[in-house]
Amino acid sequence: MPLPLDNQLCFTLYATSMTINRTYKPMLDEMGITYPQYLVLNALGEADGMSVGGIAHRLALESSTITPLVKRMEQAGLVTRQRSQADERQVQVDLTTSGRALLVQCNSLNETLIERSGMTLAELDA
Protein backbone atom coordinates (compact mmCIF):
# COMPACT_ATOMS: atom_id res chain seq x y z
CA MET A 1 0.00 0.00 0.00
CA PRO A 2 1.45 3.42 -0.91
CA LEU A 3 2.50 5.84 1.78
CA PRO A 4 -0.06 8.68 2.13
CA LEU A 5 1.14 12.00 0.70
CA ASP A 6 0.88 13.71 4.08
CA ASN A 7 3.45 11.23 5.42
CA GLN A 8 5.99 11.91 2.67
CA LEU A 9 8.68 14.51 3.32
CA CYS A 10 8.85 15.51 -0.34
CA PHE A 11 5.15 16.42 -0.36
CA THR A 12 5.45 18.40 2.87
CA LEU A 13 8.35 20.40 1.41
CA TYR A 14 6.44 20.93 -1.85
CA ALA A 15 3.31 22.11 -0.01
CA THR A 16 5.39 24.45 2.15
CA SER A 17 7.08 25.91 -0.92
CA MET A 18 3.72 26.48 -2.62
CA THR A 19 2.38 28.20 0.51
CA ILE A 20 5.39 30.51 0.61
CA ASN A 21 4.97 31.35 -3.09
CA ARG A 22 1.27 32.15 -2.58
CA THR A 23 2.12 34.34 0.41
CA TYR A 24 4.75 36.33 -1.47
CA LYS A 25 2.77 36.66 -4.71
CA PRO A 26 0.47 39.61 -3.83
CA MET A 27 3.38 41.64 -2.46
CA LEU A 28 5.60 40.85 -5.44
CA ASP A 29 2.73 41.64 -7.83
CA GLU A 30 2.62 45.14 -6.30
CA MET A 31 6.34 45.47 -7.05
CA GLY A 32 5.87 44.21 -10.60
CA ILE A 33 8.10 41.13 -10.30
CA THR A 34 7.67 37.37 -10.05
CA TYR A 35 9.00 35.14 -7.28
CA PRO A 36 11.86 33.82 -9.49
CA GLN A 37 12.80 37.43 -10.38
CA TYR A 38 12.75 38.22 -6.65
CA LEU A 39 15.22 35.39 -6.10
CA VAL A 40 17.49 36.67 -8.90
CA LEU A 41 17.44 40.18 -7.36
CA ASN A 42 18.45 38.73 -4.00
CA ALA A 43 21.21 36.59 -5.52
CA LEU A 44 22.62 39.69 -7.23
CA GLY A 45 22.25 41.56 -3.94
CA GLU A 46 24.62 39.01 -2.41
CA ALA A 47 27.12 39.21 -5.27
CA ASP A 48 26.41 41.74 -8.01
CA GLY A 49 28.07 41.00 -11.34
CA MET A 50 27.48 37.25 -11.26
CA SER A 51 27.31 35.28 -14.46
CA VAL A 52 24.03 33.72 -15.56
CA GLY A 53 25.57 30.36 -14.63
CA GLY A 54 26.56 31.71 -11.21
CA ILE A 55 23.01 32.89 -10.56
CA ALA A 56 21.66 29.52 -11.68
CA HIS A 57 24.06 27.71 -9.36
CA ARG A 58 23.19 29.96 -6.40
CA LEU A 59 19.46 29.41 -6.93
CA ALA A 60 19.76 25.68 -7.76
CA LEU A 61 18.18 26.28 -11.19
CA GLU A 62 19.28 25.68 -14.77
CA SER A 63 20.94 28.46 -16.78
CA SER A 64 18.21 27.97 -19.38
CA THR A 65 15.69 28.99 -16.70
CA ILE A 66 17.67 32.06 -15.61
CA THR A 67 18.36 33.46 -19.09
CA PRO A 68 14.75 34.44 -19.95
CA LEU A 69 14.22 35.79 -16.42
CA VAL A 70 17.26 38.02 -16.72
CA LYS A 71 16.21 39.17 -20.21
CA ARG A 72 12.81 40.26 -18.88
CA MET A 73 14.49 41.98 -15.94
CA GLU A 74 16.78 43.80 -18.36
CA GLN A 75 13.76 44.97 -20.38
CA ALA A 76 12.23 46.25 -17.12
CA GLY A 77 15.42 48.20 -16.38
CA LEU A 78 16.36 46.17 -13.28
CA VAL A 79 19.60 44.62 -14.57
CA THR A 80 22.14 44.96 -17.34
CA ARG A 81 23.73 42.07 -19.20
CA GLN A 82 27.10 42.09 -20.89
CA ARG A 83 29.53 39.53 -22.19
CA SER A 84 32.42 38.84 -19.87
CA GLN A 85 35.68 40.32 -21.12
CA ALA A 86 37.55 37.37 -19.64
CA ASP A 87 35.30 34.73 -21.25
CA GLU A 88 32.97 35.76 -24.08
CA ARG A 89 30.83 32.66 -23.45
CA GLN A 90 29.70 34.06 -20.11
CA VAL A 91 27.14 36.82 -19.60
CA GLN A 92 27.66 39.03 -16.56
CA VAL A 93 24.54 40.43 -14.86
CA ASP A 94 24.58 43.64 -12.83
CA LEU A 95 21.85 45.43 -10.90
CA THR A 96 20.88 48.86 -12.18
CA THR A 97 20.02 51.75 -9.86
CA SER A 98 16.35 50.76 -10.26
CA GLY A 99 17.19 47.15 -9.48
CA ARG A 100 19.03 48.15 -6.31
CA ALA A 101 16.10 50.35 -5.24
CA LEU A 102 13.68 47.47 -5.79
CA LEU A 103 15.95 45.15 -3.82
CA VAL A 104 15.79 47.55 -0.85
CA GLN A 105 12.00 47.46 -1.15
CA CYS A 106 12.11 43.64 -1.31
CA ASN A 107 14.10 43.50 1.92
CA SER A 108 11.00 44.65 3.81
CA LEU A 109 9.06 41.54 2.72
CA ASN A 110 10.44 39.38 5.53
CA GLU A 111 9.35 41.92 8.14
CA THR A 112 5.90 42.13 6.54
CA LEU A 113 5.53 38.34 6.55
CA ILE A 114 6.58 38.14 10.20
CA GLU A 115 4.03 40.83 11.12
CA ARG A 116 1.29 39.02 9.19
CA SER A 117 2.10 35.74 10.95
CA GLY A 118 1.09 37.26 14.29
CA MET A 119 4.24 35.83 15.86
CA THR A 120 7.51 37.37 16.94
CA LEU A 121 10.80 36.50 15.27
CA ALA A 122 11.85 34.66 18.45
CA GLU A 123 8.67 32.54 18.32
CA LEU A 124 9.26 31.71 14.67
CA ASP A 125 12.88 30.73 15.40
CA ALA A 126 11.81 28.36 18.19
Short structural description:
With 126 residues, the chain is mainly alpha-helical.
List the helices and strands and how they pair.
Layout: H1 9-31, H2 35-46, H3 52-59, H4 63-75, E1 79-83, E2 91-95, H5 97-106, H6 109-117, H7 121-125
Antiparallel strand pairs: 1-2
Shape: globular
Helix content: 55-70%
CATH superfamily: Winged helix-like DNA-binding domain superfamily/Winged helix DNA-binding domain
Percent strand: 5-15%
Major sheet details: 2 strands, antiparallel
- Main structural class: mainly alpha
CATH C-level label: Mainly Alpha
User: Radius of gyration, Cα only, in angstroms?
Assistant: 17 Å
What distance separates the N and C termini? 36 Å
Word description of this protein:
With 126 residues, the protein is mainly alpha-helical. The protein has one domain: Arc Repressor Mutant, subunit A, CATH 1.10.10.10. The chain contains seven helices and two strands. A two-stranded antiparallel ribbon has the order 1-2. Strand 1 and strand 2 form a beta hairpin. Helix 2 packs across helix 5 and helix 3 crosses helix 4. The longest helix has 23 residues, at 9-31. It is globular and about 55 Å long. The mean pLDDT is 91.
Q: What are the key terms here?
A:
126 residues; mainly alpha; Arc Repressor Mutant, subunit A; two-stranded antiparallel sheet; 63% helix
